[in-house]
Automatic annotation (TrEMBL):
Composed of three domains: the N-terminal N domain, which is responsible for interactions with the ribosome, the central G domain, which binds GTP, and the C-terminal M domain, which binds the RNA and the signal sequence of the RNC. The chain holds residues 1 to 297 of 447 of the full protein. The gene is ffh. Residues 270-283 form the SRP54-type proteins GTP-binding domain. This is Signal recognition particle protein. The keyword Ribonucleoprotein applies. It is an enzyme of class 3 (hydrolase). Its EC number is 3.6.5.4. Belongs to the GTP-binding SRP family. SRP54 subfamily. Part of the signal recognition particle protein translocation system, which is composed of SRP and FtsY.
Amino acid sequence: MAFEGLAERLQSTIKKITGKGKVSEQDVKEMTREVRLALLEADVNFKVVKDLIKRIKERAVGQEVMESLTPGQQVIKVVKEELTELMGGENSKIAVAERAPTVIMMVGLQGAGKTTTTGKLANLLRKKHNRTPLLVAGDIYRPAAIKQLETLGEQLTMPVFSMGTETSPVEIAEKAIEKAKEEHHDYVIIDTAGRLHVDNELMDELQGIKDAVKPDEIFLVVDSMTGQDAVNVAESFNEQLDLTGVVLTKLDGDTRGGAALSIKAVTDKPIKFAGMGEKLDQLEPFHPERMASRILG
Ligand code: GDP
């Protein structure tokens, strides 16, 4: 389950302080030390942990807690608020283009869950707006990727725009948008090529698509189970493409939570959605507060 390991550790640490009528500076020190270790063990970015602990300490030993009737609970409230803040505010809205269609570009490394998430997102948008998005097969290097998207389209009974492997991704994206206008699709979701590692050629190609179609959203899909690697990938993609948001996949199997807790702080881009399983209805808006509650119990 998501965050299970981290949750267990933090909850036992925090239990010690909950019932306290008085919280001494020493108590706060001990608690923050444990929280710090738990977060580092969960593979949260080192600098992110340092800043977070500093803020918790400042607030927990300050007036805010000392004057409170139940200082123990107040300390926990501080930790929860800081974790929520760390993961970003509520942010799962999708930009809407002034003129339809709204164009969403999906980027990410191979295996992160990009194609699956393209289908999941389309499913979510159709449920919400009752309109069918147009899916676009922009990975021209792997025929299997095109096939995979087409299969998803069949499962969802949604149209998939593909031009095979001989046309450039820029042209495919442009043609897809023309078609979406003709057929009155509100959303176009472009699945792009992935590689095993970040490389310049891939970035140039993605930049080319971005320049040509000026997407309303560029979502990076990253595998939360890869922890700080996911954070590094997010940094690279963000530097090159100026992302508008991140989708964290495989959160259902991530017991540590390092990526979820670090990405917003490191890239300043919000996590908008989380993949919670392989099924096409297992994509959820990412709610930082709910995540923090899940972690702290
Ligand atoms: P792509 O190469 O980035 O397009 O990745 P795929 O969409 O092919 O996904 C790679 C694998 O990850 C597939 O087996 C998916 O079923 C799986 N996957 C994707 N998202 C999730 C998720 O949120 N949870 C779990 N458990 N598996 C996922």
